[in-house]
Specification:
Layout lengths: L9 H7 L41 H14 L3 E5 L2 H12 L5 E5 L4 H11 L5 E5 L4 H10 L4 E5 L11 H10 L3 E5 L17 E5 L13 E5 L2 H14 L5 H12 L1 H21 L5 E5 L9 H7 L7 E6 L2 H9 L6 E2 L9 E3 L20 E5 L5 H16 L2
Parallel strand pairs: 2-3, 2-4, 4-5, 5-6, 10-11
Antiparallel strand pairs: 1-7, 6-7, 8-9, 9-12, 11-12
Helix pairs in contact: 1-2, 2-8, 3-7, 5-6, 11-12
The structure holds ligand P1T.
Length: 393
């Protein structure tokens, strides 16, 4: 008997949904079904549909069910990376001649996939500041779009888009809305409830949560879209291994708890960095700060925190940003985000190098922080000493 967790809170669903003890042994934790294939008792009659692990695997199914539940969505599908998930969404929906409205601040890899793979295949892109409803309206009135691609908070500038208002405008024109919810995670924001058609994730980040796995996922309430995604997932094959699925199941169980601490730490650090404006720090981007242009929308559409990502612009340009990023003791200089350990990076030279010279180019004095769950005071002291080292140059 499957227990219904739909009325339980997220912290409960994260731990219980899809996690029924193994019926054969009572194992409390779902087994890793490290098998490529399954014995069929009769020709063409696999047991419970399990025929081949690219198509279906019990460990992956558990992760899908757990993620769908915590997102509050009907269908979740796990992929071998965030970009593999994004690729399947784009390939399922777009045909040559279709146009995508792309946020003007998105992960560099998403921009690269669209501009370097899909554009040569005949898809067109228009970059728009999707955090500005007037700009979205203007674009819709001058060109015809199939899809709007939104990151909120965006990578790396933490811009906030009003999902509900944007989806309402898009749907009046029959445009599909995708929200890449990687930065907020399903613990803090539920784009489907706000009207988005599809949610995409790099589960490499907060969902995995420990910087030890690369993965992606797509969630939707739309049966037809889910069938198309599943078809392409099986046809093209970018699935996570049973072990990668299992390690993400473990990560997802503690997501609500971790996001609480990420958010508290980031809030404390953002306030501290804001107090250093004019003293080495030029600008602080964190949606939890009242000074952030998207603060009110973020407070409305995010629940229980504003996440662990902060970007700062340094006085002293690229040289200062580089020195700052290379001077921390606890923040590790590395790409990626969303793990328990704090990371620091220079988007212009690292994660967003592929947007140089485009409308999506990021400022060269920008440093991005992925605030971990260490002690906030230790992290603040680390940033202070790195800033002192930067100013001493
Ligand atoms: O790396 P992968 O799991 O394929 O996910 C791609 C991706 C998609 N969407 C967003 C918002 C992302 O941030 C990413 C990956 N980002 C980084 C590696 C980074 O450091 O920003």
């Amino acid at each position: 008997m499957t227990i219904d967790y739909s009325k339980d809170a997220i912290a409960t669903r994260a731990i219980h949904a899809g996690q029924e003890p193994d019926p054969m042994t009572g194992a409390v934790v779902p087994p890793i079904y490290m098998t490529s294939t399954f014995k069929q008792p009769h020709v063409g009659q696999p047991i419970n549909g399990y025929d081949y692990s690219r198509s279906i695997n019990p460990t992956r199914n558990v992760f899908d069910e757990q993620l769908a539940s915590i997102e509050g969505g009907k269908h979740a599908l796990a992929f071998s990376s965030g970009l593999a998930a994004i690729d399947v969404v784009l390939r399922s929906i777009l045909r040559p001649g279709d146009r995508v409205m792309l946020g003007n601040d998105v992960y560099g890899g998403t921009y690269r996939l669209l501009s370097k793979v899909f554009v040569p295949w005949g898809v067109e892109i228009t970059t728009v500041d999707v955090s500005d409803l007037a700009a979205v309206n203007k674009a819709i009135n001058s060109e015809s779009f199939k899809l709007i691609w939104i990151e909120t908070p965006s990578n790396p500038l933490l811009a906030i888009t009003d999902i509900e208002a944007t989806a309402a405008i898009a749907h009046e024109h029959g445009i599909t809305v995708v929200v890449d919810n990687t930065f907020a995670s399903p613990a803090l924001q539920h784009p489907l409830e706000l009207g988005a058609d599809i949610v995409a994730y790099s589960t490499t980040k907060y969902i995995g949560g420990h910087s030890d796995v690369v993965g992606g996922a797509v969630v939707t309430n739309d049966d037809d879209l889910a069938a198309q995604f599943a078809f392409l997932q099986n046809s093209a094959g970018a699935v996570p291994s049973p072990f990668d699925s299992w390690i993400q199941i473990r990560g997802l169980k503690t997501l609500p708890l971790r996001m609480q601490r990420h958010s508290e730490n980031a809030m404390a650090i953002a306030r501290h960095l804001e107090s250093l404006k004019g003293k080495g720090i030029d600008e602080v981007w964190y949606p939890g700060l009242e000074s952030h242009p998207g603060h009110e929308i973020a407070a409305r559409q995010m629940h229980g925190g504003f996440g662990g990502m902060i970007s700062v612009q340094l006085m002293g340009g690229k040289a200062a940003a580089t020195k700052f990023a290379e001077s921390t003791r606890l923040f590790t200089l590395a790409e990626s985000l969303g793990g328990v350990e704090s990371l620091i990076e220079h988007p212009g030279a690292m994660t967003h190098a592929s947007v140089a010279g485009t409308a999506n180019e990021v400022p060269d004095n920008l440093v991005r922080l992925s605030v971990g769950i260490e002690d906030a005071n230790d992290l603040i002291a680390d940033l202070d000493q790195a800033l002192a080292a930067t100013l001493a140059e």
